[in-house]
Amino acid sequence: MAAAVPLEQKDNAVVMYVVITRGQIFLRDAVKDNDGVTRTQLIAAIRGFPNSWQMKFAEALAGETDPKNLAVKLRNGAPFLSSPTKDDLTPRSTTERQGWKHETLCSRNPL
Question: How far is CA 87 from CA 30, 42, 68, in A?
């Protein structure tokens, strides 16, 4: 007979799933919206993610992958994203991508 998992652990697992899923959606949308910084960072980090995450990203960004200009192969050999072009490397913050004016607390309230 399997040991019962405390409700608190189940709740934490659900919360973590939601946080991870939202994070994946945010990163996917940023890449699809030509956020070069996010794209470059995702390419650099993807092989450190668990296999299941790698495949979710690969599936979600299949349209952004050009096998002739491949950025990286995942652990299972699946192609992932195209190598960034010069235009892709133009920094755009996620706040600018979302249409928000970027300003810091310091710029609003100087000491």
Answer: 15, 17, 18
